[in-house]
Each structure stands twice: as structure tokens, then as C-alpha cells.
Design goal:
The protein has four helices and no strands. By secondary structure, the chain is mainly α.
Length: about 80
């Protein structure tokens, strides 16, 4: 492993020390877990398709005719249920 020096706000350092003690691990272990989880989250987000990609992939899926007419029919049904 590579040693790294970081600076923390006092409040964050106190919380980190307290949390590490509660969880029965060292502060370094807790920081490694946090960094790993953050990295995994960033990698998942980067791998997620963009809105543009999703729109492209789903374009043309609706084959039921006039989409606006279908929406209006559904909305009429919903309004009928409120009465």
C-alpha cells in the first residue's frame, strides 16, 4: 500500500476517530473503505448510459399509433377514477 497524507477539518477528524472506534477498526481502514465505495459509485455512474443514449435506444418503441391520443385516453380514465 502507498502511504498518503491528508488534511481534515477538526470536526471530521473527531467524527472519523469516534466512528473507527465504534466499528472496531482503524481510521485508515475506514478511510480506505470510504474511498473504495466512492470510487465504485463514480465508476457505476460513469458506466450508466446517458439520457441521450437512452433516448436513442428507445426511440420508435411505441407502435400503438398516435401517442398523444393514447395519453389523453389514459388521462381521461384517471380523471374518471377521481370522481
Amino acid at each position: 500500500m502507498i502511504r498518503t497524507l491528508i488534511s481534515l477539518d477538526e470536526e471530521d477528524k473527531r467524527w472519523l476517530d469516534r466512528k473507527a472506534k465504534e466499528d472496531g477498526m482503524t481510521m485508515a481502514q475506514l478511510v480506505r473503505i470510504a474511498v473504495r465505495r466512492y470510487r465504485e459509485q463514480c465508476e457505476r455512474e460513469a458506466a450508466a448510459p446517458s439520457l441521450e443514449d437512452l433516448l436513442q435506444r428507445t426511440s420508435g418503441l411505441w407502435k400503438g399509433g398516435d401517442g398523444l391520443a393514447a395519453q389523453l385516453r389514459l388521462r381521461d380514465e384517471w380523471e374518471g377514477e377521481d370522481r
